[in-house]
Amino acid sequence: MKRPAQLVFVPSPVIGHIVSTIEIAKQLVARDDQLFITVLVMKLPYDQPFTNTDSSISHHINFVNLPEAQLDTQEAIPKPGSLTRILVENHKTHIRDAVVNLLSESDQSESASKPRLAGFLLDFLCVTLVDVADEFMVPSYVFFPPTLRCSHFFLPGTFADKEITGSILNSTSRCRQIKGILVNTFLDLEHALHYLDFDDKIPPVYPVGPLLNLKSSDENKGSDIFRWLDDQPPVSVIACALEHSGQRFLWSLRRPPPKGKMAMPSDYADLNAILPEGFLNRTAPIGKVIGWAPQAAILAHPATGGFVSHCGWNSTLEKQNLNAFQLVKELGLAVEIKMDYRKDSDVVVSAEDIERGISQVMELDGDSKKALVDGGSSYSSLGRFINQI
Domain 5-210+370-388 in CATH: superfamily? Predict the structure, then answer.
């Protein structure tokens, strides 16, 4: 009989990366009942501890909130590359201690077949933790929550910052030390994946996406948002729209953190105060404005026909400048509203631009679910990874 295996997952401390990590964990334990996963969750200094309320999470998946680590930086707001690097380095001791505790608990187990520590699955931004995995003499695997091209890290202007560039190059070089790379993408989306099998300098690459929880929880089904969606015709709702578009819309509108401070977005106490006068009343028959939204569940609802995105990769499965270019110009899966902007620019997107984009996007349709079913490319790729563990 196959001996049970324990994998340690370390996601980047960003909710989008944690969500994708949970989804790949769920798929893995669903495919192999001898596999157990412990997710070590780092905490951002301004964020709340991660709490899991998803009843569909398997008892084979365990979450450990690591103690908060001090940033120990002179910067009021560290640059994104600096913040992640400092957090990861300062969490190494906590991660090491958590794995020691995990192994100790396994040794004390009365089970005749105790799970062996089979390896670490590290977020790309946490790849320097390969040193910790080496201490336990187990292999490391890397997980890319975005696409293979990883365009989050190569936006225009990124390489103008020497510190961020150094962090990216260091992480990339460390990838040569790992045993395999899992990517939240699928073969039909990125055909370059076919050619990686012929490069013996690159670890095996496993496209396992798109990783989305498309099953609405009972809590979602009974919510005001989903009661409204249920009343709409199929393929009729846009994620964000303007009044004059004439399209039905669901708009998730949240308050950004104060300028110059690190904080998570929050909901507005009074939407009327920040919207045009009378907007909510005039659009009530066709639209709904909300705060936080269960994004993946909404996008999976049959009433949803498209969405307006800032282009983060989880929004595309759940992309920023280069991601948007790939979707619009290369794949034809999206419509451009505005892509020729730069960080801190004063570009303003007009109502006419948004209205035009909304009308065009409703004519597009795509389906990547076939990659996940038995016999699909991502389903088969996940099976190859499980066989390697």
Answer: Glycogen Phosphorylase B; (3.40.50.2000)
pLDDT surpassing 90 at residue 141: yes
Place of tokens 């990769």: 313
Exposure of 172 in the CB half-sphere (CA atoms within 13 A): 11
- Got the DSSP string for 221-282? HTSHHHHHHHTSPTT-EESS--GGG-SEEEEE-EEPPPTT-----EE-S-GGGTS-TTHHHH
Give the architecture-level CATH label for domain 218-361: 3-Layer(aba) Sandwich (3.40)
Could you tell me the two tokens for 299?
């996008």
The predicted-structure confidence for 158-216, as pLDDT tens digits, reads as follows 455 566 566 666 666 666 778 999 998 888 777 777 777 666 777 888 999 888 765 65
- b/e map of 340-377 (b: 16 or more CB within 10 Å)? eeeeeeeeeeeeeebbebbeebbeeeeebeebbeeebb
- Amino acid sitting at position 276: P
Closest CA to 91 of 154, 24, 42: 42
**What's the pLDDT score for residue 230?**
81
Check: CB of residue 389 under 8 Å from CB of residue 35: yes
Distance CA 9, CA 30 (A): 16
| CA–CA dist 259, 68 (Å, integer) | 24
